[in-house]
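Hey, quick one: can you model this chain's 3D structure?
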Amino acid sequence: MEELKILVIRFSSIGDIVLTSPILRLLNSSKKYEVHFLTKNEYYSLVSENPNIHKIHLLKDSLKNIFFDLKKENFDFIIDLHNNIRSNILTFMLFKKTFKLKKNLFNKTNNIHIAERYLLALKKLQIKNDNLGLDFFLSKELEKKFNYNENFIAWCIGSKHDNKKLSANKILEVSNTINYPIIFVGGSDDIEIGDYILNQSSNKKIKNFCGSLSIQETATIIKNCNLLITNDTGFMHIGASFKIPIISLWGCTKPDLGYTPYQTNNHSIYIVSEKYVDSCHRYGKKCRSITKCIDYISTQKLKQAIELIFCK
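Sure thing. Here's the predicted structure for all 312 residues.
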């Protein structure tokens, strides 16, 4: 039987794209579908090594340009896991049967994890969860190049929104009390904070790689660490894909939004600010507190969690 050609859409961001990986695996393993994936150009490296995708399409500027390329593919149907204005315009223009992610924009809690809500969009295709969690595929070349023989902690100090970042002084307080090698990862916005902690900390085993690594290089660091400490951010989900121990930090976003590390198989600890019971904002764009909610996290709890996992 000839495979049906399908287009999966998720434009952004890091975590949301990684969270589509079970869908891609399940569709491809069924042997019924030729899976195409559409995302923004800057996120190509998140899916570039994924063997479950037959062809990647990149949105570089306008929908008009990508529309003509997609039209030529003559897809049998579309799976829209973004479901925003731009993806709705595109699916309307392509005029193909479309399965969409159902959004709950007005709910501050969600009992169903986002990875499973993605799967619900495919209910009519009778695609069932294999419970293998998330996938992330590294470049074989990068894996060969990685050479770090010590046990170490990877600490993702960045996030898309500042309200989700634990403050430099809180990180400094914790790093001063542990004697393990720590590698900071994050974006260019986090270089200054990483350097400040590195220079001030009594722990002389800290390296600051913020702003100097690609997504694939950062993922390689995360895969090889013994423990990932992370804010609520995309690299948390990359960590979950590698089934490594994770300590995730939650402030103005909360685990009950349905975006926790998914099926990690290892000990995963959530440390949640007690400033407010519910989330300030679904994406962490706003915080109700003058001092960020995340900075009400107990450093003592964080230190205890590190000892619990790292000393196993």
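One thing worth noting: The chain has a mean pLDDT of 93.
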